[in-house]
Amino acid sequence: MKRRILIATGLIGASALFIAGCGSSGATDTASGGSSAPAGVATGSGASFPAPAYTQWCQDSKTCSYASKGSGAGINDLTKKVVDWAGTDAPLNSEEAGAITGTLLYFPTLLGGIAVPTNINGVGKAINLTGPALAGIFDGDITTWDDKDIAASNPGVTFPSASIVVCVRADSSGTSYNFSGYLSEISQSFANKVGAGGSKTPSWTATVSASPGNPGVANCVKNTKNSIGYVDLADAKQAGLDTKAAAIGEGSTFVAPTVESLQAAGAGAKLSSDLTFSVINSQAEGAYPITATTYAIVTEGGKNTAAVKTAFTYFLGSKAQGQLEALGYAPLPASVLAKATAQLSKLG
Prior knowledge:
The strands form three sheets. The protein has a seven-stranded mixed sheet. A five-stranded mixed sheet has the order 1-10-9-11-7. A three-stranded mixed sheet has the order 8-13-14. By secondary structure, it is an alpha/beta fold. The chain starts with a strand and ends in a 5-residue tail after the last helix. Helix 4 packs across helix 6. The protein has helices at residues 51-61, 71-79, 94-98, 131-139, 148-151, 174-186, 188-193, 213-223, 233-238, 259-266, 305-315, 318-327, 334-343, and strands spanning 5-7, 17-18, 42-46, 64-68, 85-88, 104-115, 118-119, 128-130, 165-169, 208-211, 227-229, 231-232, 247-250, 253-255, 291-299. The radius of gyration is 19 Å and the shape is globular. It folds into two domains: 12-109 and 294-347, 3-Layer(aba) Sandwich (D-Maltodextrin-Binding Protein, domain 2); 114-266, D-Maltodextrin-Binding Protein, domain 2, CATH 3.40.190.10.
């Protein structure tokens, strides 16, 4: 099936610049090619998935700035040394890593849920979706809301026969990487059609409406009847869509994205030597299956390292981690936090 993509326009807010903690009204954004930020401020850009947290932390600590523009764009900025650090929800592939000068350090910062909000005409509550049914929607096998595979998981709910509007990311995205990775793991049909493993730019085989950034996808769902999308829980919460986030599961067991279900998924995290890890499709009891981590990345001995260390120390501290639940995230498991904190010593 040839895919058809509709690019949403006018969503400037989805790629909006987040500048915080500069201590001067004259500070400008290096991520957009402006002049350097004041001394002591670590400039960053990248993933929109953690942007609500990074923005809050930069504002509170006055140690950093952050431009939310997608994981791919942030990695590109770091590669070109436009910024001091970047945010990404996916480990770099070999080509991306090879383009970076110096030793790359990953600092996990939080756990987040990739929520699946819906806006279905006549259905005023969150629905249940099995992983294969969700994959079927995004690979084009399921095209209407009254499909039997959706109805079977939602007894008593009357679905319209309307076509499903599928909202996706238009930009290179770590959220897309983790979401498509889950769908390809749970559905061989999706893996065959869209691709096995995660991709920051999936070749969707459903007809999709594409928008930049997680806020763009949230706006697509919020403003479009009979739609579905994928967006971090924090942005879903900001858009008022958290109460419409589907519970994902199998049989009679469906789990909604909550702080508790994110923590359950993270409890079994197994770190690689570079501190990357995945808890996608965690089999732990009570775990939300589309839970992801995100990383603040920097090159060892790179640009403005002292300022980056100050900012990252704040990110991993008790105050910042303690704010995550209110924002719609979960703090790092203690074992992960300890190793990330220990790695700060590599920044000098």
